[in-house]
Amino acid sequence: MENHLTYESAYAELQQIAADIENETITVDQLAEKVKRAALLIEYCQARLRSTEAEVSKIIGQLE
């Protein structure tokens, strides 16, 4: 995944892909590529959420 990608930008791109699919603004030829990109973005977002959750839990544990 790109080094400059943030959770917010990945989520925004996912929303755009979903909107394009819902509005049928992409061609059948583009669909597989968009779905593949969405899968990568979802994987990235899930990893970031898990990482953030672990970090927050660690910080909270140190405060207790």
Automatic annotation (TrEMBL):
**Pfam families in the record:** Exonuc_VII_S
Keyword annotations of the record: Cytoplasm, Exonuclease, Hydrolase, Nuclease
Q: Which Gene3D superfamilies match?
A: Exonuclease VII, small subunit
Q: What is its EC number?
A: 3.1.11.6
The protein's superkingdom reads: Bacteria
Write the protein's name: Exodeoxyribonuclease VII small subunit
State the family named in the UniProt similarity comment for this chain.
Answer: Belongs to the XseB family.
Q: Which InterPro entries match?
A: Exonuc_VII_S (IPR003761), Exonuc_VII_ssu_sf (IPR037004)
